[in-house]
Design goal:
This protein has one domain: Rhodanese-like domain (Oxidized Rhodanese, domain 1, 3-Layer(aba) Sandwich). Helix content is 32%, strand content 23%. The protein contains five helices and eight strands. A six-stranded mixed beta sheet has the order 1-2-7-6-3-5, sandwiched between helices. Strands 4-8 form a two-stranded antiparallel ribbon. Helix 4 links the parallel strand 6 and strand 7. The longest helix is centred in the last third of the chain and has 12 residues. The radius of gyration is 13 Å and the shape is globular. This is Rhodanese-related sulfurtransferase.
Length: 121
């Protein structure tokens, strides 16, 4: 597992796709797709993933925002993915800075699919 430093010295870890798939299936992990709608239209998304495009990410995920999604909780573990893992790393760091306790970068949709995760269209 790789770790990436975030301000304050703590880190956002990379989660293995197989682990994310298993934890999501048990309801222990919320998976978030941060890609744009056109990307999802072209390739689908991880089954059960919540779609929060990066452009609206802070507004929809910040617990202090009136538009924060009801599905989110500072205590519930989350794993984020995009196309390659770069944008999801930035978004994961934002979530950690907002106070989410357990945040992971899953990488890209390909990682989910390659590990046996279902794609919905």
């Amino acid at each position: 597992m790789l770790s990436f430093l975030r301000p304050g010295g703590s880190s956002v870890s990379r989660i293995a796709a197989k682990d994310a798939i298993a934890r999501a299936a048990r309801g222990e992990l919320l998976v978030i797709d941060i890609r744009e709608g056109s990307e999802i239209a072209a390739s689908g998304k991880a089954k059960g993933a919540l779609h929060v495009p990066l452009a609206a990410f802070r507004m929809r995920c910040d617990p202090s925002s009136p538009e924060c999604l009801a599905e989110l909780s500072l205590e519930k573990p989350v794993a984020l993915y995009c196309a390659s893992g770069a944008r999801s790393q930035m978004a994961a760091q934002m979530m950690a800075q907002m106070g989410y306790k357990e945040v992971y970068n899953l990488g890209g949709l390909y990682d989910w699919h390659a590990a046996g995760g279902e794609i919905t269209r």
